[in-house]
Design a protein that fits this description.
The protein has one helix spanning 147-154, and strands at 8-17, 29-37, 40-46, 52-59, 62-69, 77-84, 89-94, 97-98, 119-120, 133-141. The protein is mainly β. The strands form two sheets. It has a five-stranded antiparallel sheet with strand order 8-7-6-1-10. A five-stranded antiparallel sheet has the order 5-4-3-2-9, with no helix packed on it.
């Protein structure tokens, strides 16, 4: 908790599905959830929609998020999100490229992280949302990385 800065950070993770069918099985599957409570959290998951990922950022009850298509990638892929409260910006990345518009109008995160509600590859609220495949190199930075830095991370073989 002492190292997490909820107003300025980057989270990144590498993921791979167990098989192509995971992208079309109509099951929500969690990459990660970092959470203080229901009004302050960041969540990345494969939605029940075919080939779709979603990242949601909620701070002070203000929800921002977006869905984007993964194209059904079966090799390892890279997902990152950068948050800057001071810059009023949340940016979502897939394989080094920003997805959609920069999200603005952010709320202010309140509260410390809840150790039992921060998960990689699962969610304590929905055990059925376990990731099906592999996850690697989950990392949190206490600053929003630049687009160039995200692209470099995503290009690591």
């Amino acid at each position: 908790n002492g190292a997490f800065t909820p107003g300025e950070f980057t989270i990144a993770i590498w993921g791979k599905v167990a098989s192509a069918g995971v992208w079309t099985d109509a099951t929500a599957r969690r990459l990660f959830r970092i959470r203080a409570d229901g009004s302050n959290m960041i969540d990345a998951y494969r939605t029940a929609t075919n080939n779709q990922l979603e990242i949601d950022y909620i701070a002070g009850g203000t929800a921002k998020g977006a869905q984007f298509l993964s194209g059904g990638v079966t090799s390892f892929f890279h997902v990152a999100v950068t948050v800057s409260k001071s810059g009023d910006a949340v940016k979502l990345y897939f394989n080094g490229a920003q997805q959609g518009a920069t999200l603005t109008g952010l709320g202010t995160w309140v509260g410390a992280l809840n150790a039992t509600a921060c998960n990689i590859g699962a969610s304590t609220q929905a055990p059925a949302s376990v990731w099906s495949g592999s996850l690697a190199h989950f990392a949190i930075w206490n600053t929003p990385l630049s687009a160039a830095q995200i692209a470099t991370l995503a290009s690591v073989p």
